[in-house]
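Hypothesis: this fold can be encoded by more than one sequence.
Test: take the structure tokens below, design a sequence, compare later.
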């Protein structure tokens, strides 16, 4: 299958990783499973909080983060319906499988002194809303095991306003399958009109000038910070 099948981790910058870890372990019951010097980034700490064995919420702390000014409506949305800069995270919605679990988490959040409203029934999911440290906008949702019905929830009016043609819509609903060729696809030439990572030019050229094999060999760090005896 040539598409992602879930979120491995969502990474958020923080100026206070301890406060974030304390909040998400106490208020939401997530487990801390990793906290180490971030690979390849001098001075950065990386922490992972377990959602399940294949999905985590992650935080990155560097000394520079605390110097970045916070401005609601620019750097953070501030609430679930507010705007924020293009490409920035508007809110995080965590999943639970049942309405009972949703209500149990609502009670747990309130028991920690955090205000939360809902649930709101959106038709394809039910959601509660609350805030986290450093102006995070948070949501917990349940679709109670059901998939979203595209026939009912893709609004033709919004499709038209977004400038999506009927042909484009068909492609969006059923993306083309992809078969990996026998030979690896080479890197395309740099195109400033296509998305690219924002490294300094020299770093970008160094990384993308290496072969895939060289990147794996030179940049991988697989040894955990703590040795566990067998």
């Amino acid at each position: 299958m040539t598409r992602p099948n879930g979120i491995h981790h969502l990474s958020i910058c923080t100026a206070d990783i301890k406060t974030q870890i304390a909040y998400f372990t106490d208020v939401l019951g997530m487990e801390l499973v990793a906290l180490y010097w971030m690979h390849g980034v001098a001075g950065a700490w990386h922490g992972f909080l377990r959602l399940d064995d294949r999905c985590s919420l992650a935080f990155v702390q560097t000394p520079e983060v605390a110097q970045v000014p916070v401005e609601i409506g620019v750097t953070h949305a501030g609430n679930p319906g507010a705007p924020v800069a293009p490409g920035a995270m508007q809110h995080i919605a965590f999943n639970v499988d049942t309405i009972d679990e949703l209500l149990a988490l609502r009670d747990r959040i309130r028991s920690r002194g955090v205000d939360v409203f809902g649930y709101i029934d959106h038709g394809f999911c039910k959601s509660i809303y609350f805030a986290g440290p450093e102006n995070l906008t948070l949501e917990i949702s349940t679709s109670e095991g059901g998939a979203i019905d595209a026939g009912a929830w893709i609004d033709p009016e919004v499709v038209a306003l977004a400038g999506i043609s009927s042909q484009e819509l068909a492609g969006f609903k059923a993306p083309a399958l992809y078969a990996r060729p026998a030979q690896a696809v080479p890197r395309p030439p740099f195109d400033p009109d296509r998305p690219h990572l924002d490294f300094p030019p020299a770093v970008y050229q160094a990384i993308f000038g290496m072969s895939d094999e060289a990147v794996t060999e030179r940049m991988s760090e697989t040894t955990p910070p703590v040795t566990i005896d067998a």
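The longest strand covers residues 45-52. Residues 30 and 157 are 40 Å apart (CA to CA).
Hypothesis status: open.
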